[in-house]
Structure formats: structure tokens, C-alpha cells
Amino acid sequence: MAAESPKYRAPALDKGLDILELLARAVSPLTIAEISEGVGRSRGEIFRMLQVLEERDYISRPDGEGRYSLTPRLFRLGMEQPPVKSMVETALPIMHRLADDIDQSCHLVVPSQEQIVVIARVDPPGEIGLVVRVGHRRPISHSASGHVLLAWQDDETRERWFTMMIAHEPQLQRAPIDKAISGIRAAGFATIASQVVDGVTDISAPVMQHGRATSAMTIPFIERRGSAMNIATTTRLLVDAANEVSEALAHRPTPSLGN
């Protein structure tokens, strides 16, 4: 039996969303030809849509020429959602204290389809540290934060995430990830060498709500000569901070989108 088609269609909306989702996955700005091929539509079909999206500040041409990328507008809209805003407001004071204690940066990550996205960060108090920008995205499978988020989900959610991950990375090997997240659950945190920067260890711990990890608090740890703060102490302080955020969120009224 053929799959049922949606009862109502909005072709222009479909077209605009296809473009936004394509640009969200792109690692660099795309030309009109690349967008046309990526969404399976003619240049004529997407030209006016690109103009409207650019006028509304959802996309821009960073080089001033013909290549398009997303602006932060969608991210800012998402950040205004009450549950996300509440999480950031709760976490930031605790993250500031953590950064002062460990003399390192830290950031807060949430899942976004097959990726993670940084929604808050605190810079290190000193002059040396690795800072990850707000809005940064990476595949769940390639990050300590993503492994932590995977580790504390129910089976149904984890299966859904793996389906999305494999759709975007057909070569992805699931068995090593399953083994890794089993160890992470047993330890209560993840400690993984950065896949981006040599000499950095990503330490990540879950922020829990209703029995699952809704975000992950992460430190890109840099070992510094002469520092009394080692990775073991840093990990303990991170886990304590993530637990404190979880506890604060448990006692904070849940925001309603209707308020």
C-alpha cells in the first residue's frame, strides 16, 4: 500500500523549509546551482524563495556574491522558547562559577536532529582556553556531548536518533558507539580526546530532566603546566555542576509555550 500523502500541502512552505534544512547541513555557503540540486528543484523555482528568505534575514550571502548560508535568526528564535531560555538562565550562573573554579571554559549543548548545538558558553577567566562559539554544530556521533546525550535517553529515542545519524552518515559503525555509551552511563560522564583539536580532552556530563539528558555540560580541557587543576578534579567539579543544574531545573516551574 502506498504511503498516505499529507492531507494539506503548502508547496511554497515546503520549498522554503527544504532550503533552510539544506543550508543548515552545509559546511560552507552554497551557490544557487548547489541549492537547486540539493533540494531537487529548478533554479527558477527557488530564486524568488531565496530572495524572500534573504529579505527576512534567514539567509545571507557572506561574500556579497552568489553563495548563501544561514544567519543566526533561526537560532535566536529557538533560544527564545521558554524551556530553552529557562535552561540557559538556570545553567549560566553555575557555569560561571565552574569556569572560575577550573580556570577553563565550559559550554552547554542540546540535541538538534542528528547533531548537537551549543546554546550557551562561559569563557575561561584567564588568558588561555579553548572557547566553542554559541551555535556551533557537530554530529552527535563525533562529540563527547553527543555521546552523553545518547547515553541517557530511553530506547525508543536512542533508536530514532541512530536512524537519523545513519541516514546522514551511512558508513557509521554503531557497535563502537553503543560500547562507548555503555561505559559513559557506568561512569556518569564522558572523557574523550577531541576530534577537532590535538591536546584537548572533552569532558561532558548530563543535565537531567524527567529521567533523560536534555542537555550536556562540557569542558574542552587543556592540560596546563604548573596548574593544580588536573583532569580528575575538573571532571568531579563538572559532574557536581551538571547535577546542580539538574536539581535546580527539577524545582523550577516548567515553562509553558502558552504563557
Shape designation: globular
Number of strands: 8
SSE series: HHHEEHHEEEHHHEEEH
Strands in their spatial order, largest beta sheet:
5-4-3-8-7-6
Structural class: alpha+beta
**Main sheet attributes: strand count, strand direction, barrel closure:** 6 strands, antiparallel
Ends apart, CA distance between termini: 43 Å
Mean pLDDT: 86
Radius of gyration: 20 Å
- Multimerization state: single chain
How helical, in percent, are the residues? Answer: 40-55%
Low-confidence stretches: 254-259
Individual helix count:
9
Q: Beta fraction of the residues? A: 15-25%
Question: How is this structure best described in words?
Answer:
- With 259 residues, the protein is of the alpha+beta class.
- It has helices at residues 11-25, 32-39, 43-55, 73-79, 82-102, 144-151, 155-168, 174-187, 231-250; strands at 59-60, 69-70, 106-112, 115-122, 137-139, 190-193, 200-209, 212-222.
- A 6-stranded antiparallel β-sheet has the order 5-4-3-8-7-6, sandwiched between helices. Strands 1-2 form a two-stranded antiparallel ribbon.
- Helix 2 (32-39) packs across helix 3 (43-55) and helix 6 (144-151) crosses helix 8 (174-187).
- The longest helix has 21 residues, at 82-102.
- It is globular, with a radius of gyration of 20 Å.
Give a brief rundown of this model.
The protein is an alpha+beta fold and 259 residues long.
What descriptive keywords fit this protein?
8 strands, 259 residues, disordered C terminus, alpha+beta, two-stranded antiparallel ribbon, six-stranded antiparallel beta sheet, 18% strand
